């Protein structure tokens, strides 16, 4: 598979923390921006969805007594913080970038309009989709699957802190098995929590392959786009 012309990159908020316990590590953002610059220079059109877990997670908010919908909206706002930070780093490298938010906030970002997003991509701009799907009860993984389907991306690249999908958490179980290829059905049957079930089902319906790989390896994003075997591939 690959090389790909249009891809959707899903970044976890936690990945932006680096070794910190909260917030954004500028060294991580600088390195990610360099990797994205290589992607843009290669001619690949790139959409990005970022999580907000480095600032706020909806599920942890529920544990603190916040009502579910409100907690999810707070998580969506956290994704806007990350989106604006990444935009700043990318533009400093001369990469034209637009933040499109599912929650309207015109002073900070353009409202998400599908046809406008596709036009930006065609003009060589990097699109950062902020605000999740704009709806509570859906994760940013589902937002990634949804936006990828809407813009006609060929693949979803899920960049994480581990180098693929394992049978169990490899940090807790060193003997955990790493999978190289999985079907959507296997991910759902084995209850492998790489993406939530709604996201996996959406990718399956739209025949969107997913590659789960290690964000921390320099040049990994470009390697996956070139079609090199990296991480775990989820497909039919």
From TrEMBL:
Keywords: ATP-binding, Cytoplasm, Kinase, Nucleotide-binding, Pyrimidine biosynthesis, Transferase. UMP binds at residues 52, 72, 133-140. Transmembrane segments: none annotated. GO terms for molecular function: ATP binding; UMP kinase activity. One of its GO terms (cellular component) is cytoplasm. GO terms for biological process: 'de novo' CTP biosynthetic process; UDP biosynthetic process. The keyword Methyltransferase does not apply. Its EC number is 2.7.4.22. Pfam families: AA_kinase. InterPro entries: AceGlu_kinase-like_sf, Asp/Glu/Uridylate_kinase, Uridylate_kinase, Uridylate_kinase_bac. ATP binds at residues 10-13, 53, 57, 160, 166, 169. PANTHER family: URIDYLATE KINASE, URIDYLATE KINASE PUMPKIN, CHLOROPLASTIC. Belongs to the UMP kinase family. Catalyzes the reversible phosphorylation of UMP to UDP. This is Uridylate kinase. It comes from Leptospirillum ferriphilum.
């Amino acid at each position: 598979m690959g090389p790909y012309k249009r891809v959707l990159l899903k970044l976890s908020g936690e990945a932006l923390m680096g070794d910190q316990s909260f917030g954004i590590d500028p060294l991580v953002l600088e390195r990610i921006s360099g990797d994205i610059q290589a992607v843009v220079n290669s001619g690949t059109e790139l959409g990005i969805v970022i999580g907000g877990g480095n600032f706020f997670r909806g599920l942890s908010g529920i544990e603190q007594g916040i009502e579910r919908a409100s907690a999810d909206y707070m998580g969506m706002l956290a994704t806007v913080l990350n989106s604006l930070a990444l935009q700043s780093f990318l533009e400093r490298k001369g990469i034209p970038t637009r933040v499109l938010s599912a929650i309207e906030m015109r002073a900070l970002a353009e409202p998400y309009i599908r046809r406008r997003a596709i036009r930006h991509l065609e003009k060589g701009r990097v699109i950062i989709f902020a605000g999740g799907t704009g709806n509570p009860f859906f994760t940013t993984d589902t937002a990634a699957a949804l936006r990828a389907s809407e813009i006609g991306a060929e693949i979803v690249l899920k960049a994480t802190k581990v180098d693929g999908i394992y049978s169990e958490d490899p940090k807790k179980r060193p003997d955990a098995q790493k999978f190289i290829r999985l079907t959507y059905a296997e991910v759902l049957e084995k209850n492998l929590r790489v993406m939530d079930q709604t996201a996996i089902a959406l990718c399956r319906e739209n025949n969107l392959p997913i590659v789960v790989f290690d964000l921390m390896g320099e040049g990994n994003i470009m390697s996956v786009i070139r079609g090199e075997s990296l991480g775990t591939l989820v497909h039919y």
